[in-house]
Design a protein that fits this description.
This protein has about 130 residues and is mostly helical. It has one domain. Helix content is about 75%, strand content about 0%. The longest helix is centred in the middle third of the chain and has 28 residues. It is globular and about 45 Å long. The mean pLDDT is about 90.
């Protein structure tokens, strides 16, 4: 049951911190020569994977979870939902307003949300 698999207060805080760190990192990368290229899209995904792994590993999973797969999936879903909810005003009505809700239908956005869950599950499974 998902309701009991994680501490939601901690999960929400970690999810917000994860989004903030990712937003800062990707915003800083806007000033690189790669910006706007396919390489930048892949780099954003790699940075997202790494940042999310470390935030989950060091901010939430301080010790090995009792049920790593279950807790990792639950926390990963929370991270992805938090990112989506924050991105609605920031991207769909802000920076990417010209695209609107289509922003979320791009292949790289869909893959990024899936990778968010994968990174958190990996953090849970690899915690000692």
């Amino acid at each position: 049951m998902m309701g009991m698999c994680i501490n939601y207060k901690q999960a929400i805080l970690a999810g917000v911190i994860n989004y903030a760190v990712l937003f800062l990192a990707i915003s800083a990368m806007m000033f690189t020569p790669l910006w706007g290229t396919p390489a930048q899209t892949y780099l954003n995904m790699v940075v997202g994977l790494v940042v999310t792994y470390f935030v989950a590993s060091y901010l939430y999973f301080k010790k090995k979870p009792k049920e790593p797969l279950k807790e990792g999936i639950c926390l990963g879903i929370v991270f992805a939902v938090i990112s989506f909810l924050i991105e609605i005003p920031v991207m769909a009505y802000g920076f990417a307003a010209a695209q609107g809700w289509a922003w979320f239908t791009q292949w790289n956005m869909i893959v990024s949300y899936v990778l968010c869950v994968v990174a958190v599950v990996a953090a849970a499974m690899m915690k000692k």
